[in-house]
UniProtKB/TrEMBL annotation:
Protein's organism: Streptomyces gancidicus BKS 13-15
Residue intervals of the Enoyl reductase (ER) domain: 14-341
Keyword set includes Cytoplasm: no
Molecular-function annotations in GO: alcohol dehydrogenase (NADP+) activity; zinc ion binding
InterPro entries: ADH-like_C, ADH-like_N, ADH_Zn_CS, CAD-like, ER, GroES-like_sf, NAD(P)-bd_dom_sf
Name of this protein: alcohol dehydrogenase (NADP(+))
PANTHER family: ALDEHYDE REDUCTASE (PTHR42683)
EC numbers on record: 1.1.1.2
Record keywords: Metal-binding, Oxidoreductase, Zinc
Reactions performed catalytically: a primary alcohol + NADP(+) = an aldehyde + NADPH + H(+)
Length: 346
């Protein structure tokens, strides 16, 4: 085992603090990664504060990991020392169920192993990317193309795949009108990716405060949901809406913006239950769908797509000592658009 420095929350709602953790010795098919950058996802905050339920402490968050391979197990065939790699939201799955065999490990019927706040199949707790190193099975590691800088690539391992997967699944592309609801860490990636796919892209945001950014990143239109006229003007406009909002919404109002048989795909995960009048679905033959990250193969596909189109996250690089402040700023929507930790500062 190897002792490495990390930032951890010792208890629910406690500030994160510098500590040390143990990483397992490299096994037959393991890859040891020197972490260079780790993104801060709103999911980290939900879990550190037990907003999604009881959690495991101490917790080392972080599932947007970019780094360089420094050691490989004797059976590793996919990677070699020096490769630029990433790790996203999961580090294992059963690998036997129909979903795993279909490349949808995120929906493993036995439960995928999360990168942190989970228990691995060896019975040990998992610790995430706010640390110097991580050991991961090669089957859950992806290659970061040379055209992507590691710092702007890190958030793609969650934010990027979270938007790429539903945009691809529901046919974002030429001739399709796509709305991205929420212009934050997830939403700004949705704008970039949907634009690169060739869709006509609209941002739906609470205000017009980030309009210039939205248009610069690839949106064709930008509307404020805080203005009731928006819902009148845009009624029946979109083939697809992807909601990134992690707070309860008036789903009826947003479903009314869809064309007949349009889809609202939800990737935001509010802590509170939401309500829905089913007539808002039935009336137009509309669909309300969910999506959670993507499988390993699709994540690699997303990274290759982003490299081909010059897409990285818009980031603010911070030192590890600024993590707690960054959490507060995320809660206050005071980031454009993803905090990334320089792990050399841990």
């Amino acid at each position: 085992m190897t002792t490495v420095a990390a930032y951890a929350a010792p208890a629910a709602k406690a500030p994160l603090e510098r500590t040390t953790i143990e990483r397992r010795a490299v096994r037959e098919h393991d890859v040891l990664i020197d972490i260079k950058f780790a993104g801060i996802c709103h999911s980290d905050i939900h879990q550190v504060r037990e907003g999604w339920g009881e959690a495991i402490f101490p917790m080392v968050p972080g599932h947007e990991i970019a780094g360089v391979v420094s050691e490989v197990g004797p059976g590793v065939t996919r990677f070699k020392v020096g490769d630029r790699v990433g790790v996203g939201c999961m580090v294992d799955s059963c690998r036997e169920c129909e979903n795993c065999l279909a490349g949808k490990e995120q929906y493993c019927l036995q439960g995928q192993t999360p990168t942190y706040n989970g228990i691995g199949r060896d019975g040990e707790p998992t610790y995430g990317g706010y640390s110097e190193k991580v050991v991961v099975d090669e089957n859950f590691v992806v290659r970061i193309p040379d055209g992507l800088a590691l710092d702007v690539a890190a958030p793609l391992l969650c934010a990027g795949i979270t938007l790429y997967s539903p945009l691809k699944r529901f046919g974002a592309g030429p001739g399709r009108k796509v709305a991205v609801l929420g212009m934050g860490g997830l939403g700004h990636m949705g704008v970039k990716i949907a634009h690169a796919m060739g869709a006509e892209v609209t941002v739906l945001s609470q205000s017009l405060r980030k309009k210039d950014d939205g248009l610069r990143l690839g949106a064709d239109h930008y509307h404020a949901t805080g203005d009731p006229k928006t819902f009148e003007e845009l009624r029946g406009s979109f083939d697809l809406i992807v909601s990134t909002v992690s707070a309860p919404l008036d789903f009826g109002a947003y479903l009314s913006l869809l064309k007949t048989e349009g889809t609202l795909a939800n990737v935001g995960a509010p802590e509170e239950p939401v309500s829905l009048n089913l007539f808002s679905l039935i009336g137009g033959g509309r669909s309300l769908a969910g999506s959670m990250i993507g499988g390993i193969a699709e994540t690699q596909e997303m990274l290759d797509f982003c490299a081909e189109h010059g897409i990285g996250a818009e980031i603010e690089l911070i030192a590890a000592s600024e993590i707690n402040e960054a959490y507060e700023r995320v809660e206050n929507s005071d980031v454009r658009y993803r905090f990334v930790i320089d792990t050399a500062t841990i």
